[in-house]
Design a protein that fits this description.
alpha+beta; Transposase Inhibitor Protein From Tn5, Chain A, domain 1; nine-stranded mixed sheet; two-stranded antiparallel ribbon; 13 strands; globular
Length: 455
């Protein structure tokens, strides 16, 4: 008998994940793991995590409004802390980003076990041959408003930092996130550092920035595999032609090559896969030397999935409001970034389970439509829990049976959150000339001293 699927989608899974995993025990573990000289204060690490995740969910106009709601208990999403706003800003200034990074890492490790690989089902056969398929890419954060006195005379667009993410293609999660307060820091250097946090035997997809002998040497050192777009400056010496055949209306060639000169790093033995039809050409490099483990056609089919990480950055910035930074303090920026990543991973698990409830792939659910409904349902659900706890305190012998998940605000129908596929007439974003001239906050005159005082 076929399994019967539900017609409605549960909107409370995200808040369940946050309540289940963002606990005092997890935060204490993170605190002990990376603590140096910091002390526990009224604004504890758990309260800070809860506050910043609530900021991501509620998107207040300003932190002062969110702090007022937290202090007066008007919004159940915010923890109730009897402390002044100055104490919060001092806590954000003094607490290193390593604490939030560790909380994100432990939270992601927990939800990975609860997240079966439902995304990108078309490449499930390839995914089963590796520990995971991960996409690496970097992105810079939104510009800082010129309200700081330090920036009054600065004409360039000032950026507070950059991030590098490792997107798990099967589970749809941000597996690793690295934040750097210097927006001009090298993406390649940060990517090599991120490899230590990825599982061994993982297959990594990357753009032409990673098409170097040094990156493949780093992959080999960490027992990982890679499929990257060919970088033209990388010299290739053909050793052997493995295959040549017709594929998808074009010619598919597969060579065994030696990449690099061997001056800086040892030359790497790779496969050079090229598909050409007329004037169209696609070329990728991989260190998976066995065609039986990764066929040439499969390697070419994998590369377009690299754009999934761009969609992750879009969801973080546009859907989860990371384009609006609430503070120029690099520690506070890092807190907002990692809080958005925590909410993003919980949201992607909720999206995956919601799609399974209606028997559809997760990609059929639109994050831009689904997330606002989840945010409203989370607020109402926590408000209902507060009301129920208040009622039980005043009626200790009463046992009200209220099934909140059956309320209309706790569920939605698939057509209301379904993706609307775009037509061919697409609207392109206008190019802003100011984007060509940007500067990291660390590179502004006096910016290094300013950040040193904050951090």
């Amino acid at each position: 008998m076929a399994r019967r699927v539900s017609a409605d989608i549960d909107l409370l899974r995200l808040v369940d994940l946050l309540q289940e995993h963002i606990t005092a025990a997890l935060c204490q573990t993170a605190f002990r793991r990376v603590r140096r000289t910091e002390r526990q204060r009224r604004w504890t690490l758990q309260a800070l995590v809860q506050f910043w995740t609530a900021v991501v969910l509620r998107a207040p106009k300003a932190l002062s409004q969110a702090l007022a709601d937290s202090r007066e208990g008007r919004d159940p999403l915010f923890p109730r802390i009897e402390a002044s706003p100055e104490a919060f800003f001092q806590r954000c200034r003094d607490l290193r980003p390593a604490f939030f990074a560790e909380v994100f890492r432990q939270f992601t490790a927990r939800v990975l076990d609860a997240a079966p690989p439902r995304y990108a089902a078309d490449i499930a056969a390839v995914r089963d041959r590796f520990a995971a398929i991960v996409v690496l890419d970097g992105s810079r954060l939104a510009a800082i408003a010129h309200r700081l006195k330090l920036l009054w005379d600065e004409r360039a667009v000032v950026l507070p930092g950059c991030v590098l993410g490792a997107y798990d293609l099967g589970r749809g999660l941000c597996r690793v996130l690295h934040f750097d307060a210097d927006a001009a820091s090298s993406e390649f250097t940060r990517a090599r550092a991120v490899l230590t946090d990825l599982p061994r035997n993982a297959l990594i997809l990357g753009d032409r920035l990673y098409g170097t002998a040094a990156f493949f040497a780093a992959l080999h050192a960490h027992d990982c595999w890679g499929v990257v777009r060919r970088n033209r400056p990388l010299g290739l010496h053909t050793l052997q032609r493995l295959s040549k055949r017709r594929h998808d209306g074009g010619c598919l060639d597969d060579w065994l090559v030696r990449a690099g000169s061997g001056a800086a790093v040892p030359a790497q033995t790779l496969r050079h896969i090229r598909w050409q039809r007329g004037g169209t050409r696609y070329e990728v490099l991989t260190n998976v030397l066995s065609p039986t483990r990764l066929a040439a056609a499969e390697a070419l089919a994998l590369y377009p999935y690299r754009w999934s990480v761009e969609r992750m950055f879009f969801d973080l910035k546009e859907v989860l409001n990371l384009n609006r930074l609430y503070a120029a303090n690099p520690n506070a920026v890092a807190m907002q970034v990692f809080a958005a990543a925590i909410v993003y991973n919980a949201f992607r698990v909720a999206q995956s389970e919601a799609a399974a409830q209606v028997g559809r792939p997760p990609e059929d659910i639109s994050p831009a439509k689904f997330f606002p409904k989840i945010a409203v349902a989370s607020f109402l659900y926590l408000y209902a829990q507060d009301w129920e706890q208040h009622w039980r305190r005043h009626h200790p012998h009463g046992h009200p049976l209220i099934r909140w998940r059956r309320h209309p605000w706790a569920r939605t129908a698939l057509p209301l959150v379904e993706v609307e596929h775009r037509d061919e007439a697409r609207r392109h974003r206008r190019f802003c000339p100011a984007r060509r001239q940007w500067k990291s906050l660390r590179r502004v005159r006096g910016g290094r001293r300013f950040l040193a005082k904050l951090s």
